[in-house]
Design a protein that fits this description.
Organism: Lichenibacterium minor
Largest sheet: 7 strands, mixed
Distance between the termini: 28 Å
Order of helices and strands: HHEHHEEEHEHEE
CATH class: Alpha Beta
Number of helices: 6
CATH superfamily: Gcn5-related N-acetyltransferase (GNAT)
Radius of gyration: 24 Å
Keywords: Acyltransferase, Transferase
CATH topology: Aminopeptidase
GO molecular function: acyltransferase activity, transferring groups other than amino-acyl groups
Oligomer: single chain
Shape: elongated
Strand content: 25-35%
Number of domains: 1
Protein name: GNAT family N-acetyltransferase
Number of strands: 7
CATH architecture: 3-Layer(aba) Sandwich
Strand order of the largest sheet: 1-2-3-4-5-7-6
Bound molecules: coenzyme A
InterPro entries: Acyl_CoA_acyltransferase (IPR016181), GNAT_dom (IPR000182), YpeA/RimI_acetyltransf (IPR050680)
Length: 204
């Protein structure tokens, strides 16, 4: 594609006065004149005060302990490291983590899904409390769904507590819709069991 006025465009670019001025104050000239400084970058790696740069990786068994630790921050009945080791090692399971770019040992969150033919179930997703509301879960879901899509998956299912407003909004934003309910499915410490909603997203 060529944009009007670009080098590939047949449309001649009109002469630009600013460009033809030889003493235009470029950043380098301003720096030489001592009136320009590079913009300081935040020390903690935040960008616009919101997201710590991170990237998605495929989960491997070495992260089972970290998964168990993170899982305990998000669920009242967490799974242990052995559970995660088995799941991550299973051929049908697809796991992704978002790790900090500066320190890849530090996981911001992770997701685990299981595939059966052209369907997949999201088994769990959790984001470190200090990284929530920064788009981490959205990125994890997309990375995981893209990998499953490449393996022929067309439909995704998951269960979410009807009182889990954050997760329900996350999934709604990704196009999941309710296809069923399980009354009293989740144990709640000292309370009435919560209802699970079954959500589905289909592509194609
Ligand atoms: C649910 C959870 C995974 C969301 O992770 P997250 O990284 O904070 O989510 P994101 O930043 O990607 O948010 C994506 C969207 O989800 C919704 N959302 C996320 N957290 C929310 C909150 N606390 N309140 C309302 N909406 C929320 C928003 O629509 C948000 O988009 P926006 O920020 O543009 O408004 C996280 O809160 C968590 O780990 N909870 C504990 C474990 C859990 O409940 N897992 C899901 C089990 S089904």
């Amino acid at each position: 594609m060529s944009w009007p006025g670009s080098a590939c465009s047949p449309t001649p670019t009109p002469p630009c006065r600013a460009r033809s001025t030889s003493r235009r104050p470029t950043p380098r000239r301003r720096a030489r004149a001592g009136c320009w400084r590079p913009r300081p970058r935040p020390e903690d790696g935040t960008v616009f005060g919101r997201t710590r740069p991170g990237h998605a990786i495929v989960l491997d068994g070495d992260r089972a302990e970290d998964c168990a630790r993170l899982h305990a921050t998000g669920f009242p009945h967490p799974w242990d490291a052995l559970d995660f080791e088995r799941l991550i090692g299973a051929e049908s399971c697809f796991g992704h983590a978002l790790v900090e770019t500066r320190d890849p040992r530090r996981m911001q969150g992770f997701i685990l899904s299981r595939r059966a033919a052209d369907e997949a179930e999201v088994l769990t997703i959790v984001v470190d409390p200090s990284n929530r509301r920064q788009g981490v879960a959205g990125r994890l879901m997309r990375a995981n769904m893209e990998a499953l899509l490449r393996h022929g998956v067309k439909s995704w299912f998951l269960e979410v507590g009807d009182t889990n407003a954050a997760a329900r909004r996350l999934y709604a934003g990704l196009g999941f819709t309710e296809v069923g309910r399980r009354q009293g499915y989740y144990r709640v410490a000292g309370g009435t069991p919560a209802t699970a909603l079954i959500l589905r997203r289909t592509i194609g």
